[in-house]
Amino acid sequence: MLRFLLPLTLLAGLARAASPSLMPLPVKMDAAAGKFAIDQNFKVSSAGCSDARVAAAVARFLSRLSRQTGIPGWNRGAEGAGVSLTLVCAAGETPSPTLEEDESYRLAIDPAHALLEAGRMAGILHGLETFLQLIQPGPEGFQIPAVHIQDRPRFPWRGLMLDVSRHWMPVEVVERNLDAMAAVKLNVFHWHLSDDQGFRAESKLFPRLQQLGSDGNFFTQEEIRRVVAYARDRGIRVVPEFDIPGHTTSWFPGYPELASAPGPYEIGRHFGVFDAAMDPSREATYTFLDAFIGEMAQLFPDPYFHIGGDEVNGKQWNQSVRVQEFAHEHGLEGTLAIQTYFNQRIQKILLKHGKIMIGWDEVLGPDLPAGTVIQSWRGQKSLADAARQGYRGILSSGYYLDHLKPARYHYGVDPQGGPAADLDPAQASRILGGEACMWSELIDAETVDSRIWPRAAAIAERLWSPREVTDAEDMYARLEVASRLLEWTGVEHRAVHGPMLDRLAGNHPAEALRVLADACEALGLGNGRRGGNYTTQTPLNRMVDALPPESESVRATERAAARILASRPPGPLDVAQLRQQFGRWAANDERFQPVAAENALLAELRPLSKDLALLGAAGLRVLGYLESGQAAPEDWIAGQTRECARIERPTAEVSLAAVRPVKLLLEELARRSRKPGNR
Length: 679
Ligand code: ACM
Known about the structure:
This protein is of the alpha/beta class. It is about 40% helix and about 15% strand. It starts with 11 loop residues before the first helix and ends in a 5-residue tail after the last helix.
C-alpha cells in the first residue's frame, strides 16, 4: 500500500495524518511502494563497517528486535546469504563519539531489501534506532512500510543530565537510561556526580571523598569505566560534573581543609543552597583539585569537563577573614569576582589535563576564560548573552524534568528562540544544543525513569528535528507510541506505576486507586511541590511519587471532549467514550473510600477521590445538556464553574487532571446556554 503520497519533509501537519510514529522526526522522509517484512529470516550484514562497535550494536539491535516483535532466534547474529539489512559506513573507526562527529544517516527501506548508510558510527547507531521505531504489526506479520529517510541532527549537543548525588542511582539505572537515550538519539550523558548530599565517584588519591561523603553509595572507578564504555558503544559522550566551589558539602567530611570555614562537616540531608564552599584563597585547594581532576580526567575521555559553579551564595567567603584578605590583595570585589578568579585557576588546571571547561550560567562573569561552555539554566537570556560574548553554550532552562511540567511545555522551548532569536548567524552557531535536567531531590532509583521518560523524548526531538517541527498534538501522538517502545530498551517508566499503586493499596485490590491515579498528575519541584520540606531520608512512596507527570487517559478524554465541541451533532463514539469515563469517575469514590480507610498513605487522597466523583457527575450532566441542546440553569453552571476552580488547586501535591475535560465542556455549555440561538 502506498502510505505517503507526498514528500513529508518538514510538513508536520501532514505528517500527523500519514507518517510512522518516529521520534525524533527525521529531516526528510519519503514514502515508497510496498512493505518490507520482518520475519524469522531477517539478516543483517555489517561487512561494510570496520568500526569494532558495529558488531555489538547489531547484536543489541537484533535482541531488541526480538523483544519488540516476540520473534525469537536472532541473538546468534546473522551474517551470510539472504541479507535483509545492509550497513555501509563510509569512514573507518571512531574510537569515541565526539561533539564534531558526523551523525547523519540514510535509510532506504524497499520491499526486498533495506540499506543503512552513514559516514560514521553515530549515523549507523541512529539509523538502527529509526529502523526499530518503524516496525509495526501488519496484515501478514511485522513489517515496515517502504520508506526513504535522510536524517541528521539540528544540534550536535543533545544531552540528559542525571543527578546521582541527592538520591543515589546505581549502575543499572544509569545503563538502562543510556539505552533509552540512544533510542531517541540523545548523545550526551551529563553525570552530576557530586553535590551537598553525596560524593559519588571513587577517588583513589583522596579516598575519604567517597568513604565519608557517600553513605557507601558511589561508583567505583571500574564501574565508571564500564559506564563510559557502555555509553560510547551507544554513541553517547559522558561529561562528568564535579560541582565546585559551592554544592560541595559532601567533599568536606573527608577533607574539611578544602572548605572556607572550619568543620566538622556532615553530608547534607536537606535540599537547597548551602553556605559551604571551597576555599579559593588557599593554594592547597588548587593543588588538591589539580590532582583530583587529573585522576578523573583519566576516567572520562571526553574533552568536556563540567565544574558546576552554580548557586555560590558567598556567605562562607564573606565570613572568612582569610578569604576577604585574599580578595582584597587580588582586587576581587564581591562573590562573583572571587568565583571568577577560582574559575580561571580551575580552567588552567583543566587545560593542563586536556579538558575544556563547562559550567552553569553563573560562571558567565567578566574575564571568564575564552572557550568555556555555558549551560544556561536560570533563563534563556544567559545563553544569548554568552553567545554574544563569544562563548559557546547549551540550553537547560525550560528543560528541567524535575519540575514535572507537560511535554508540551518543554517542546515549546527552542535553544535558538526567545532572547537567542536576535543573534546573528555567527553568534547563533555558538549554541550547541541543550540538555534535559533530572535533579533528584524528589526522585529515587525507583521513580527516576518515570520522571525522565517519555518527556525527555520530546526534548530530544526539539534538539534533533528541524526547527519547523513544532506541532504539539502531533508530538503527543508520537510520544505515546515512543513511550511504549522505550520500555523495550529497559527503562521502567511505565512498569513501575502498577507495583507502586499496589504497594499503596496494601492487601486491598488497587482497582479504585488506579482509576483515581489515571485521573491525576504529579506535581514537581518548583511547580507546587517544595523540596525544602523534604530530606534525603523522606520516603518517596506516596501517590505523588507513583503518578506520572501527565495522564495519557485524561489527555484522551480531553481530545474526545474537544472533538465533541467541534462537531454538531457530537459523534456518538466520543459521547460514549466520555460517558463511560465520567461514569467511572462518578462511581469510583464509593469503592475508593474503604481502601483508604485506616491507610495513612491514602488518607490524603480522600478529598481528591470525592472531587473526582463530583467531576464525573458534573461531566455526565454537561454531556446530557450538550447532546440534547437544552440550556443548563445558569446557577448550576456558575456553581460547577466554582467547583472546577476549587478542584484545580492541587491536593497532596497532586493535581486532579480530570478537571480539564470537564471544564472544557462546561465552558462551552455556558457559552451555548447564554446564546440560545447558537445551539
Ligand atoms: C542548578 O539547577 N542549580 C544548576
